[in-house]
Each structure stands twice: as C-alpha cells, then as structure tokens.
Amino acid sequence: MRILKWPPLQALTLLGLGWVSHSHGMTDETVSHLRQDTRDLYYHGYTNYMKHAFPEDELRPISCKPQTRNREDPADIGLNDVLGNYSVTLVDSLSTLAILASGEESVDGHSPLADFQAGVIALVNLYGDGGSVHPCGSKACGFDLDSKVQVFETNIRGVGGLLSAHLFAVGELPIRGYAPEVHEQRNGVVGIDWQGFVYNGQLLRLAHDLASRLLPAFDTATGIPYPRVNLRHGIPFYRDSEDGVCRLDGTSTDSREITENCAAGAGSLVLEFTTLSRLTGDMRFERLAKHAFWAVFQRRSAIGLIGNGIDSETGQWTLPPLAGIGAGVDSFFEYALKSSIMFSGLSEDEESPLSDTSDAFLQAWELAHSAVKRHVHRITATEKYPYYGQADLVTGAPRYTWIDNLSAYYPGLLTLAGELDEAIESHLLFAALWTRYGALPERWHTNNAYIDHHFKHWAGRPEFIESTYYLYQATRDDFYLHVGEMTLRDIRRRCWTRCGWADLGDVTTGEQRDRMESFFLGETAKYLYLLFDENHPLNHLDASVVFTTEGHPLIIPKHHRSAGTQSKPSKTTQSAAEGPTLPAPTCPIHQRSAPFTGSSIVNRPDFFHAAAMAQLHLVPVEASRSSHLQPASEHSAAITIEDIRSPTNYTYYPWTLPQSLVPSYGTSAPTRTQILSTLTFPNLNTGDLNAAKGVMNLGSLQKIVDGIVISSLSNLRLSMVQEPRSLILPNANGLTIELDMGQQYRVSGVANWALGKDEKVVLSAEAQDGVAPADPNFKRVKDLEMLDLVVDFVQPAISKSAAADNEPTDSRTNVPIGNHTSGGRSALDSTLNGELSSELPTLPPPPTLMRTLIPAILPTGPGAAPLPLTLDTADPLTLQVGRLPHTSIYFLESTLCDHRLPFGIVRSHQILVIKRGGCSFNTKLANIPAFAASPEALQLVIVLSTPESKAPNEGLNGGHLGSGLIRPLLDEIQRTPAGVERRVRIAMVMVDGNDDHVAALRSAARVVATMDDHGSIIEDAREALGTGLGVKRRYWFESMGVPIGNMIAL
C-alpha cells in the first residue's frame, strides 16, 4: 500500500473529479485492496481445508493434513471438546461464504455463492437431510456420532453455524443479488432450486438434530447444563444421568466426570436455542437455554459479580472465586445484551416467565456491567492506563493484573450498549499490544508486561478484530481501518503456510503451530471483511440481527414477530413505571474530526497512555520484522515494504497509522498520579516476644462478609490510596447524580491482603485503645453532625396462627423477654388440653423487644446545645436489649408551636418526641418550660421530619451526606416561654419521620399523647416493658486531615 500525501488543493481537485476518499485519509482504492486481500486470506484457508482436510473437522496447515479428535487421549479437551467429527470447519465457514457472496464480481476465479451452495450440498451428502426422506448420509445419520463434546462449543460452532447458513439460504439474511423463491420442483419437493439441488430446510433440520443431542446435558437439578455430552450416548459419565446406574452411596458405575461448567458455557445458549425454537416450533430449546442463563445470573455475588467456574450439580462457584470479563465468563455478558436485542419486538412464549423478556435481559446486562465497572475495571491512578483485571468474586478485591486475549471482545460489546467512550478507551490498549507483538498473546501482565510461558500463543482469535469492526461502524474513524490493516498485514506476514494459516505458538518469536481453528475462517476473516466492506447489506440492515459469540449472524424472521406486540414488562420495569418518567436511553454520537485534521481517536489526550502501558517506547523506530520482502508464490505470501515498515514509528499505533492521521498540534495529558500512603503501627504489646520481633498477634484480624475486623493494631500495616469522595444520589428528576465531596483515603490493603472497593475495615474497641489522640497520621474524630439513636421497642403481638402464616422478614434482632422452657406433657395434660382447648380463651404471646438504629442529625446555629454527658459517653450497643439508660419517653402528636408544654412532662420524662413543621425550631423549644437539670428531667428533644413537613424537593439530592436530612438551624439562643435566656439548654436532634421510625419511637414511648387546639393534652400511658433509648456517637478516622472513608469504629 502506498501512502499518498497530497496538498489540500490537490486533494479537493481529485475529490471533485469523483475519486472518493474517506475523510481521514484511507482511499476507497486502498480499502478495496484490503477487502480483496481479506477475501484471498479466506480462500487460501478454505480451499486448502477442502482439499487436505474435508470431511474431517480442521486443517493442520503446516503438515497439510486433517486435524481430528484425539481418540487415544480422551482427556485432551483442547481438541476433543471442539472437534465432534462433524466437519466443524465447513459448518463454521458457511456464513462467511454467504457474506463474501455480497461482494464484487469475482476477479480471482472464486464464486462465494456457488461455494456456499456446494458446501451445503456437501454437508447434506455426509449427514443426510435431517428428516425422514434421507435421514442418513455417507458418513452418519444426522449427527449420530460417538463423540463426547463440549456443549458450549458444539452449540456456538455447530448449531449456530447451521442456523445462520439456513437463514442465508432462505433469504432471511441478505445476500446481494440472491433472491430465493420457494416452488414445487419436478420431483414434487417444495423448496429452493439450486441448479438441480432443492434446498428445503436441510440445515435447519440438521441443527435441530444436533441441538437435540445436547439436551441430555440439561438433566441437572440446577438447570445449569453439564459441560459435556456424547452426541450418541448422552451423559452416562455423570452421576445424575437419566440412564446411568447409580450405587447406594450415590456414586456412578462409570468414572466420574468433572461437573464444573462456566458462566459463559452455561449462559451462552440463548441466541442459538431461541432461534431454533422459533424456526421449528420446538420450544424446549428456548426454555432450557433461558433457564440456564438465569440460573447463573441469580447466583451472582452480593456485589453483583459473575464468577467463572460454576458446578452444574450444586450451583456453587468453583475455586478460586474470580470474576472478570474474559475466559470463562466472556460470552455471558455478550448474550445478556444481544438477547435483549434479539427479543425486542418478539412475541413472547406464553409459558415463559416475565424474566425472559427483552427488558429483563437488558437489565441483566446493565447490572452485570455496573458491577464490572465498579470492581473489575482498574481505573485508579496507580495504573498507567485503565484495564479490566481479575477481582475477587465475593469482595471485588483486586486479585490478578493480567488481561487475556478473549477480553478484547468487550469494546465491541460496549459499543453495542452505547458505552462508546469506554469502548474506545479499552480498545486502545489492545491496539497498542497488537502493535508491539504483531498479535495478541493469550495473557499479558499489565504491571510488568510479562507474558507467561504457557500463554504466549495467538490462536487466530477474532475478538480484537470484532471490536475494531463495531467501533468503525459506530465512529467511521479511519483509525480503525488502519487497525484492521495492521492485523491483516501481520496475519499474512506471520501466519501464512503453504496449506493455510497457522496460529502462533509464541507471539514474541513468530513460532507457528500446526493448527487452523475453525473460527479463523468463521470469525476472524469474516469481521475483517465486514470492516473493509462498508456497503455490505448486513452493515445497513434495519433489523434485530445479532452476531453470536462465534460470529454467526442470526435473526428471528418477520413471520415469527408481531409488529404490535410489546415485550411483557419485567417486574422491575413495572415498578419503575410508577416512578418519574425518565428520558429514553440513546447511544452517544461520536465526535468526528473535521476533514483533513487527522483522527479524533489519535487526538485523544490519553492516546499515548495506552502506548506507555504496552511499552511501545521500547520498540525501535525502525523496527526489524521477522519477515523479508518476497513475491507471492506457492511457497510464500507476498510481503511488500508496506508489510514491514511503519509510515510513522512504533510509538504510534497501529503501526500502519499514516502521518496524515496524526494531529499537527495534538497533546497528551499527563499520566495519572495518585497519593498513596502506608500506616505502619509499632509493637503495642510490650510483653509479647513475637510482637517484639514485628510479628502480628494471632487473631488480630477477622474476615467478615463486608470486610475485615481488626482487634489489634500492633505491628499492622495499612495500605491506603487517596480517591475522590463522592455521593451518588437521585435528583429532582429521578436521575442519579454524583456530588463531589472532596478527597478521602480508602484502605486498599491490610497486611498485604488486598481489599475490594466496597469492603470495610472495622476497628474494635480494643484496637482503638492503641490510637494516640494527638497523632496526626492516624486520628479518631467524633462526628459533630450525625449520630444514631438506639431504640428498644415492643414488637406488636400477633396470635400463633398469624405468626405461622406470616414469617418475620425483618432483619432486626428479636429478643424475647423472659425465659420460656418447653417440656413433655403428661398424658393427662394432653387429654385435658384436647378437651378444653375449644373452651379456653387464646392468650396472646408475651411481648417481644426489638432494637433498631435511627440516623439523626444535630442542629447548627447559636441555639444548638451539646448532648448531656449521660447521652454522650456510654455506647448503648454494649448493653443488652431492654437495658438502655433512658426509659421515660414522651411521644407527643403535636408540632408544639401554639401552646406551652406542661411542666410536669419535662420534669418526669427524659425524651420528648414532637413533629416538625408549623413554626421554627426555636419556637418549639421556647414552648418548653424552664426546669432544673436532673437525671429524671428532659435530656433530649427528637423532632420527626415527616413527609408532609418537608419542603418541596427536600432530600431529593440526598440531604446531608446522603442521609435524606438537612441540618436544623437554631438561629437564636434558646429562650424560656418567658423570653429569658435559658440556663439549661435543651439538646435536640432531627430524624426522618418515615413510618418505620415513627412506629418504633411510638412503641418505645412510656406515654403517647395528643394536644388539642386549646392546649389540652390527652395521654395514653403504657406499661414499662423494657423499652428505652440511647445515643450512639459516630466517629471517623483520618490521616493528615484526610478522612479514611472505609474505616469504621466499632
């Protein structure tokens, strides 16, 4: 390829003459050459497969022999999982042939449409027509083959390939110039005439035959299919098989097979199985696939992460419990979003639950991606560039820093979801890595650019090229055409063999391996061709077409859809409809560069950050490549100067990037820097010899669900990272907004153990004894704005029959009063009880105390008073339920604005509860008479901020620190009803007056009273049952004046 550098006037002249160019430099002539090169790439692999390997599964391109199953070693799952002895490369390649058939007139002697039809005929001759007329072919009757295969691989390559080819054959997917018509042929068969061969759905019937042979794998209690199945015998190698012989101890007569599946393997069946069900009317496939998807999704961790390995029989995640976006989980995310696309406007299966709708799958994607963005996406300033690592499934803590080749699909999926900026960002790192290595290693460590010895290979995977294709469709930025050009040139230069295309055993040396996987022709070549064919019918089809994870386009035909049918709303959608109406989600429009100004992708301020992480600066400007110039021949591919020399240099990427796309005045943002801090505590146990040597105390750390409890700081090291402090809150329109709250530290590690972003570090009371009050590096600070009211209240008593019908669902602690023992009754007691039970009245059960915490906010202003020492010292959570210090609570159903409170109330009650509204807070306190301080007198006024008392839009932005409360203002000093300054000022707090809080405080009150318009009070006195109230102060920890956000004082 020649890179032309034109003056602007010359370029405009050429454009005016009708010679069209892309806006950023790649000409249509160049794109046409790349398209033809991709077609040549495909046919070099396909014709050699048909010549040297067909009808076997794959081609060995170096030895020019077929690649078959390893029957000598059944444990060789790398081959046997995929190669089912059903000509998988041909099945996987048919949809690519159909796509090539929409290209230009043949200039190379190949006719993709004729080759497509010939491939279909060849399969029918081998395996029959899938029906009763010609059920058997020369090789097998359908797919009645003694092959134990992986359910996932057989579905995506075999079932998906057959279905996609069928949809092309009948015209449901477009082939330019091909308009099939169904007629009754001379032999009476109704179908489509292909020059003597009548196509009447043979591929669809074969797909049904193959998928039916996968169904025994779904015979599990969890709905998660077994990972493997024998196409002839089913699953006799699993204990819970439908026909297996099981011993009394639960073991099987056959050797046990591993029952570990993965999220991707179990959850990536929906597209193919749903299409098959809708085309055949056999709904078993759709229902089983959807059930398997939700069985995996419903087992996500509490923080929303999807794991990798999962056991089919138990439904438990396997060890180690990791979460990421790559191997083991990748296509689960893909099928969540793409199922939503496929099901949009689709008439629903009447027996399917609400969770099977398009909206439900879309929400599953959004929830899953949200968890990935929170816990898996590494975007902290400690990284040179953002990437998706490996996290702990339960906590979200970072575990590994490597990224894998399979993760390269994610930018394309993000593009489909409308997350365009994130897609561009993540794709840049893969583009930089390909530039450095000439392919993508299977696994690459981000912290030191290390490639493990076992993961240096590139198996011809398509994921990176797939994402490049999607991003070009969304942006039309020629940067992605040059990325595709780079991959094509590198594949031609490094993978060519006389009999096909070999994958690379080592991307650093170029060592080849003697295998060409079926997906190289089925996906890699396909996405490259679609990238370079902007006018392909599939790129302009306005329909719910999705590409499966194997690159097979699928669509539910129109006669299976109802134009007026709306998907049944999911439960979450129904509840959301009751809230504010939100704007419809839309995909962002990419900001394109002005003509002749370069690429907006290259102009990104973080463009060179990805290059820095990939260490492109270590590649010489005049990089020497492993190939030399040579003409095309039967012994070599054509290697030109453009295949080995970069027009810019290798710090730019892709290495094919021309100078015309480099912005003249582009700038790079500074790399991220982050404030890290380490707190190392000395030995605090002077009498312990091990502690004196710097050894932590045994039992000083305890793992809990939400983090770690520290019981001793002695010899402990805490790693902290400074991050922006923000709150995610709803605004007045019901949309979430992020409020900047400054900076805070987050403890990211305790004693070299990494913590997740949402994990807490809890310091016990014993550990806090080691905190020096005056140490600025680590200081405990009392919260002067928020506290918690600890309330013991009586649970409403219900009858035994009602209790049986209504199991308690409240998570608060139930503590019964008194000891209740149960013992055996004598026969006489039983008899008497039976005779008299109908006559004796049913006694209510004894009252039960419950404890709850109610957040409260302290007032501000000249009239604010500190809490009394009786409330501000002891921690009430250390006391048993029913032993709180303040038991005399007066609940007044009044705002206390118009009348004074009787003196006897403040003298004999410690807590007064009143309602907000009607007057200022100062006026309320002014209606409380003066009194002498005593333990029995008034200690605290609690103001209930009920919904009717709040101002419009109050609390929609979260209130104070997300509490939903605003701080009360006492703008004047406190005065008595006589107007003089109050000597004993009254402490006050305000709480959210929701139904739960009001019910708890009312139940805890010794007196509940109302005040009429004349100031008269009607009281309802309660029996003392152990109710009471205490105040728990809040504390936070800070280092050098910066709060530590995830540390809690116990």
TrEMBL record:
Its EC number is 3.2.1.-. One of its GO terms (molecular function) is calcium ion binding. One of its GO terms (biological process) is endoplasmic reticulum mannose trimming. Residues 559-590, 802-847 are annotated as: Disordered. Its main location: endoplasmic reticulum. Residues 1-23 form the signal peptide. It holds the Pfam family Glyco_hydro_47. Belongs to the glycosyl hydrolase 47 family. This is alpha-1,2-Mannosidase. It comes from Cryoendolithus antarcticus. The lineage of its organism: Eukaryota, Fungi, Dikarya, Ascomycota, Pezizomycotina.
